[in-house]
Amino acid sequence: MYSPPLPLARARMLSSSEIEKANPSEMGGLEASLLQLVQQHHQSSLALREQIDKAKKDAIGIAARVSNVLVEIVNGGVQECFINEKRIELEIRALASTIFRYTKQIDQWLSASHSINSAIKEIGDFENWMKTMDFDCRSINAAIRNIHPA
User: Fold this and answer.
1) Would the pTM count as exceeding 0.70?
2) Burial of 9 (0-12, 13-18, 19+ CB in 10 A)
3) Which of 10, 13, 9, 35 is nearest to 24 (CA)?
């Protein structure tokens, strides 16, 4: 697997007091310089690692905050949809009960109009019967007058 190249470590320049403290006669001159370079590299690596860890923690914190904001935005829309859905369901129930009530009222009106129609038919039938009876009575009366001239 390919790993990206690490940034070059910067060598720290020794101050004159540090150079004076490092006595080349106590340590070999080359060995002391090499040891000093290794220590500087180690310290710069630790400092760089701390910076990277700090940057990583900051990035994770920022990502968490962004994630929370996005979740709140999405949940806000979902919550609004849920509230609207509940309102619509309540309206549907109210409309269903109103429709049921109107259906019963229409059935009552249809029954009443059917009763009125039946009564009107009966009146018409009675009127027709009366006319028939009147005609029959006149026919009988005419027949009796023809048979018995007064």
Assistant:
1) no
2) middle
3) 35
Convert the pLDDT of each residue in 55-108 to its tens digit.
999 999 999 999 999 888 888 788 888 999 999 999 999 999 999 999 999 999
- Interatomic CA distance for residues 140 and 42, integer angstroms: 142
- Written as six digits, the tokens of 44 are 């710069």
- Measured in residues, the chain has a length of 150
Instruction: Work out the burial of residue 61: count CB atoms within 10 Å of its CB; fewer than 13 is exposed, 13-18 middle, 19 or more buried.
Output: exposed
Two tokens at 125? 């039938």
